[in-house]
Amino acid sequence: MRHDHLLTAKQLSRADIEEVLSRAREFADDPAAHADRHPGALLALCFFEPSTRTKMSFETAAKRLGGDIIDMGSVESSSVKKGESLADTVRVIEGYSDGIVLRHPSQGAAQMASEFVDVPLVNAGDGAGHHPSQTLLDLYTIDQHAGLDDLTIGVMGDLKYGRTVHSLAHALTNFDARQHFISPESLRLPRSVRYDLHEAGANVREHEELEAVLSELDVLYVTRIQRERFPDEEEYEKVAGQYRIDAATLADARDDLAVMHPLPRVDEIDPEVDELPNATYFDQAHNGVPVRMALLDLLLD
Ligand code: CP
Q1: Whose CA is nearest to atom 5 of ligand 1?
Q2: What pLDDT does residue 158 have?
Q3: What mean pLDDT do residues 21-31 have?
Q4: How far is CA 124 from the centre of its chain?
Q5: Confidence of residue 241 (pLDDT cuts 50, 70, 90)
Q6: Is 131 a catalytic residue?
């Protein structure tokens, strides 16, 4: 992979993705056997928004590679609270570290921050923009269950604001994938993403009902309907109920359907689905460690 920073899935070629996934498979075989890869490397975690999976799996990955992390901590306890700009913050932190992982509520923040630093910077989520390292672990998980070519995937939920969806949709244009997007009209993919997919020649369909495509799917990627985005609570209740899955919903699905979710979930997947062989979302979250080990290994090299 020949990139200084990882900012969006759009920059990833098929060769880049295959390189990360191949290296991740090596690390997954024995994650504890690679502490000689980057001894002493320091990764700075700068999270301006909450995170469990992304932050902790990057921390685990850095430590598994023989490195360590420094953590900016919460916004409230940092000098951001005194009015320090993001540009100044990352310029200072690059002097303390060998790489930066940044999550920020503003779309485009990682792109802007990357222009101020020479150490590798990973976009760990920028508002409703992108979350490319999540996409790499999503692709790793899809590859384990269904393969990345001749793939039929349904992506359901909040497609408008879902950054994991935007990144995954772009990345899948590198493969022979049929992408079905299932959402209420109000939460369709943003026009800009639809335009990019069209330009990339992606095989894309949009639906309002899961039933229209469920039986065709190899993978169903569920996302949280983000209550906080709805101006009207009643409107939220109406659509959220339609996009919730339980064991009965999956009765018409193929036996080997893989149900994925970037997590956290709220109530869009009933916990009874956790007991079905289709549920892959906890394995998906665990795949974050070998995949982020591979990504850091390539970027720090
Ligand atoms: N999937 C994901 O980004 O989870 P976190 O918000 O917990 O990092």
Answers
A1: 51
A2: 93
A3: 97
A4: 8
A5: confident
A6: yes
